[in-house]
Structures are given as structure tokens and as C-alpha cells.
TrEMBL record:
GO biological process, any: xanthophyll biosynthetic process
Molecular function in Gene Ontology: 2-methoxy-6-polyprenolphenol 4-hydroxylase activity; 4-hydroxy-3-all-trans-polyprenylbenzoate oxygenase activity; FAD binding; oxidoreductase activity, acting on paired donors, with incorporation or reduction of molecular oxygen, reduced flavin or flavoprotein as one donor, and incorporation of one atom of oxygen
Pathway field: Cofactor biosynthesis; ubiquinone biosynthesis
Gene (UniProt): COQ6
Location within or outside the cell: Mitochondrion inner membrane
Name assigned to this protein: Ubiquinone biosynthesis monooxygenase COQ6, mitochondrial
EC number: 1.14.15.45, 1.14.15.46
Pfam name, any one: FAD_binding_3
Catalytic activity annotation: a 4-hydroxy-3-(all-trans-polyprenyl)benzoate + 2 reduced [2Fe-2S]-[ferredoxin] + O2 + 2 H(+) = a 3,4-dihydroxy-5-(all-trans-polyprenyl)benzoate + 2 oxidized [2Fe-2S]-[ferredoxin] + H2O; a 2-methoxy-6-(all-trans-polyprenyl)phenol + 2 reduced [2Fe-2S]-[ferredoxin] + O2 + 2 H(+) = a 2-methoxy-6-(all-trans-polyprenyl)benzene-1,4-diol + 2 oxidized [2Fe-2S]-[ferredoxin] + H2O
Membrane topology type: Peripheral membrane protein
Amino acid sequence: MSWLRTATSKALKASARSYSQPILLRAMATTTQQAQGRLNTKDEFDVVIIGGGMVGAAVCCGLATNKLTNSLRVAIIDGKPLTEGSHTLHKTSAIPDPRVSALTPSTVNFLEEVDAWKYILYSRHAPFDSMQVWDYTGLSYTRYNAADVGKHVLGYVVENNVILSALYTRIQDLGFASLICPATVKAVKGCAYSPSKLAGEENEEETRNGFAQVELDDGQRLHARLVVGADGASSKVREMAGLKSFKREYKQEALVCTLETSRSHSTAWQRFLPTGPIAILPMGATFSNIVWSTSPLQAIELKTMGEEDFVAKVNEALVDSFGPFPSSRIPQLLAGPLGSFLGVTASSCKEPFEAPPYITKCLSKRASFPLSLAHAYNYVSPRVVLVGDAAHTVHPLAGQGVNLGFGDATSLISILSAGIEVGADIGEVSLLERYEKKQKLANLPMMAVLDGFQKAFSMDFGPINAARAAAFGAAQLFSPLKRQIISYAMGESGILDSKIFQV
Ligand SMILES: Cc1cc2nc3c(=O)[nH]c(=O)nc-3n(C[C@H](O)[C@H](O)[C@H](O)COP(=O)(O)OP(=O)(O)OC[C@H]3O[C@@H](n4cnc5c(N)ncnc54)[C@H](O)[C@@H]3O)c2cc1C
């Protein structure tokens, strides 16, 4: 895992840098306007968010609701027309969209804090209270229950367009931000470390008032104290700011669609196959969503075959192919006094393997997305900060990608508001480096865990299969380990819990 070693050592160097270069404080400012100085013309903004996907919208919503940032002048730009700010999606009649996200309780907390969760509650949202993971060898399995950690749910599966709709409805409720869309950003200038900048020779057109300049495809120019790059995995902002990144293709595509199942359920099921994991997520009633990560060739076959053949293939992959289901003998033995003696206390430790529901219909179009692991070595440069997929992309096997992005949004808002409180310039790199340090320490360990899973499950070799089964068994039976894993996956524990990492 050399990429992780390099990235972590860079993260630690960056943190040392941010300690050795304290933020230059002006006299204590009383208002945001005083702290940031006046904006002179209509094309000047405190913050320009490039990319109005879930993470860009989350940053905008966070800025709108934090009392120290809500008077900032903000623009949000997206190349696509934005989703209508409506919370009238039908709960039961319409078929769910195949693009969904499993949201962790931490993300739900953020959405509650910015008061956008209420719109998701009006719309379709599917809680899940258990997870079951197993592999094709049939040697072992792991079940997790919300009850193991004293909770009612492990998370919620929500359509991406419902999440977007909730965030934009909230932004519109507050009359916050100029929404500029559809408009594509062609260039961002005045934001990279460059020889001329280091020598202090600044191009006046690029850096009016020392601001970054954002150029749109229609020729319009905006000037910003801070540009937030929320423009996804192929980020233009990252490129224009000269922020280098690491990328490894998984040579897998994730096929998604909406399915009908033989019964309703509230479990997230995942079976690891030699070609990649297949996951079925509850979507309410008898709707489910599938995320099937497989070879690009099989993804094409699965997308183009007839509906009946596809449904048969899904059932085969989940149930019928390879060996029998894992045995439930050990958990049954532990249900009695032996379990209590060994300290096996989490309720799911004693639960037998449960067969997933049969798939009866495919209800939507099938789409697929190439998968890769990517990470920007640095998330910030003068007047620029990266969030979400622009900074990092992960395999969807644990449904963490956008949750990491919501973590970025939460952290960015708290660091910007802390900066405003002490009169710092929000585009000042020494302030932004505090965000980078905090988020690398949150994101890199999760990325390493997910990449490790992806690798461990893509090998079909006797001793490795046995080691994997042992690891599954340990995760199933050892209650403290189980609770740690659940809390980590729910975004509720990690190294960020330690006080020394708090801003
Ligand atoms: C199959 C699959 C399943 C997934 N499931 C989950 C899950 O269950 N849970 C989870 O947490 N994550 C999941 N993810 C990951 C999640 O979808 C991403 O992490 C998330 O969409 C990233 O959001 P973002 O806002 O950072 O970027 P994007 O969603 O990529 O948004 C970027 C936005 O920027 C705009 N843009 C780009 N370039 C420009 C430009 N030059 N000018 C103007 N606008 C621009 C685009 O139009 C877009 O709206 C999944 C991913 C896949 C592929």
C-alpha cells in the first residue's frame, strides 16, 4: 500500500507545515463583512462553488446555515440544469431512480443540522437496520445489526436526486447564493502556486484584488476570495490549481438499476464474487437497488441482455451460483451458555445466515460507471479548496464516497467559520491547510480500508480464501471488533474522535 504510505507521510508533513505557519490574525473582527472586506462589483464573491452535485450543494447549504458564514456572498455553478427545488416526490407510486446513496448517521446529522433532512423525510427514504456480507466460497459470513450498537438504523438509502432536491430546497428557502447553471467553468486563474506568484509578479486581470478568477464558457468572469472545487472525479479546478493526484483504475464497472424483490426487507446484502461485489440495498416496499461491480465486459453483457435473462443472472449471482450458503452452525452453538461464557454479546453474533430475497423484476434502465481509486496529494492551494470526489474517489463497495464528501463539507464550514471569527481571509492557504490536514486524516484510513477489501476479495487462492473466512468469522463472532467496525462504517468513530485532531 505504497500510495497510502506516501499520502500519509505527506499529510503529516502538511500538518507540521500548518502548525509552523500560524494564521496571520487581524484585529478581532465583529462581522463577516469586516473580516472579509467589501466586495465591490456584482461579479465579486466571497465563495464560488464549482460543481453543484451533492457535495457542492452540501457546502453551499452549510455556508447558508452557519451564523458566521451566512452573510458571505456565494455563487454555485454547475454544467447541468439543477434539480427543481421540490419536496413533493411520491413515496410509493413512482419507481425509484437507480442512482442512490447509502447515507451514514453522520451524514444524516449534517443534513439535520442544515435543516435539509426534513425534505428527505417528506420523500422516499429507506432505512436499513442490518447488513449481511458473505462470499462465493460459502466458508463464512458476517451480519451486523443496528441493535449491536444500541441504534435503530445503520443508515438510509436515498435517491441522489432526492438528496439534491432537499439541499437546493433549503438553499432556496434561505434565499442564499446565486445559482449559475447550466454553465461550464472553462478556467480558474490566480489560484496555483506559480513562479510568477512566488516572485510577487501578479497578472492584474487574473488576480483582481488578489482574488481567483473563474471563467465560464459564455465568457462571463467571476472573482472569488475562495473557489471550492466540488466538480467531481475529473475536476477541472484540481487541474487548474495544479493539484496533482494519484489514480488507479479498478478495471471494474458498477452496474446499477432498480429491482423488485419477492419480499420487502431492510437489510443491505453484499456477496463478494470473483469478479467483484454484488450489493442489494432496500428502497422501501418491494423496491431494491443493485450495485453490481464487475468486469467491464460483463457489465456490457448485463446492460444489453433482455430483462428476464438479467433477472436470472442477478439471482444466480446472489443465490444460485458457486457453493451453498455459509453454515450457521457456529452462531447456533453460541446462542447458549457457551456464547455468554466467551463474551459473545452482540445480538447479531448468534444470528444464522439469512438468504437474500429473490429478484422478480428489473424496473429501470441499467447504467454502469467505471470505478477507480483516486486521491489528490493536496486538497488546497492559494484561494482553492477541493471537496468530495474532486479530492478523492473510492470503490462503492461500502457506500462511503459521498459520506466522505459530506465529511469534507462539515469540516470546511467549521474551519471557514473559525477563520472568520478571528478575522482571517477565507482564501488564505494557512487557514485552508487546517481543513486539508483534518480531512486527510479522516479520508485516507477509510480509503485504505476500502482498497484493502477490494484487493482481498478479488483473489481466488486457497490460503487467502481461508484467511478471508477466518476474518469474516472473527468479525461475526467477536463483539468488540464488530461494534468498532459498525461505528466506523456509520461515520461515528475514527481517529478524528481524538481531541488533538479537533480544530
Ligand atoms: C455506482 C455507485 C454507487 C455509489 N453508491 C454510494 C453510496 O451508496 N454511498 C456513498 O456515500 N457514495 C456512493 N457513491 C459515490 C458517490 O456517488 C460520489 O462520491 C458522489 O456522487 C460525489 O459527489 P460530488 O458532488 O463530489 O461529485 P459529482 O456528483 O461528480 O458532482 C460534480 C458536479 O460538478 C459539475 N461539474 C463538473 N465539471 C464542471 C465544470 N467544469 N463546470 C461546471 N460544473 C461542473 C457536474 O455537472 C456535477 O454536477 C457511489 C458511486 C457509484 C459510481
